[in-house]
Amino acid sequence: MTRTQQQIRTAFADAAVTGWLHACDIDSGAEVGLHPDRPVVTASVHKLCLLVALHQRAAQGDFDLTEQIEVPPTGRTFGLTGLGAMLDPVRMSLRDAAYLMMSVSDNIAADLLLERVGLDAVNRTTAQLGLSHTLAIHTFRQLLDTLKKDAGPNGPRALNDPHTLTRLTALDPARTNRSTPRDMTRLLAHIWRDEAGTPDHGAAIRRLLGLQVWPHRLASGFPFDDVHVAGKTGSLPTLRNEVGVVEYPDGGRYAVAVFTRAANTAATLPAADAVIGTAARIAVDALRAAGTGRRAGA
């Protein structure tokens, strides 16, 4: 184990989580990893795969991203943000639904887009991009339904029971939407190099990733005005994930994917959130130290 890997492993241990990480220099291909090929539950991180598939189908002329959709107040997928917090009928474009899906991880917006795109198209997109360990099995409504079913009659309270967690389909990468840290950084590198679609669509995807509102995970490791962080989080009971790209003013671009699982079932664990940024910073600093003409720190 390298010194960098040991530092990352220690950071995870100090935060009382198990972690899996991959980081790469988008331009040179240099990489750092800790169990980077281990299958992991993506949770809402999989919305990035949906976003890429949406833009690929739009580029093919299957639909116009300015197309308007109607969202009635009834029958919505559960969610605490975006459309899930709204009480009245909503009319919006597909691209604005994509904004809600990425910026506040809106489950309703994601499932509306999945109705247009289709799970099969999402899986074709990831396969074509070489993400051989990435697969979407459930819509986000279906994923949440497995939580309700597996939790049993005690409902959300049962999710605080470690024994209940062992039977949750949503926490088993063999039975739910999944990927690996390396697959996710490969996807991000494709997006930043305009290899996942046309340059216009690539720019639109990067813009949405830059509008995510959560600063407490990946971005917490890079608290500098001149360093830009764009990413997508994913959360389920005991799981806290984020994938994203860190861009430095000297041109350095680094794709990072961090997936964690905590033994503690509490919904609020600041150290478990923050270690995503800490581990990412360790990895990126190592890549910058190894790169020519780039400084090791900010």
Automatic annotation (TrEMBL):
Upper lineage: Bacteria, Bacillati, Actinomycetota, Actinomycetes, Kitasatosporales
Pfam families given in the database record: Beta-lactamase2 (PF13354)
Coiled-coil ranges from the UniProt annotation: none
Swiss-Prot/TrEMBL keywords: Hydrolase
Protein's organism: Streptomyces kronopolitis
Family matches, as PANTHER family: BETA-LACTAMASE, BETA-LACTAMASE-TYPE TRANSPEPTIDASE FOLD CONTAINING PROTEIN
Domain Beta-lactamase class A catalytic, chain residue ranges per copy: 21-260
SUPFAM superfamilies referenced in this protein's UniProt entry, alphabetically: beta-lactamase/transpeptidase-like
Superkingdom of source: Bacteria
MF term (GO), any: hydrolase activity
Protein name as it appears in the record: Serine hydrolase
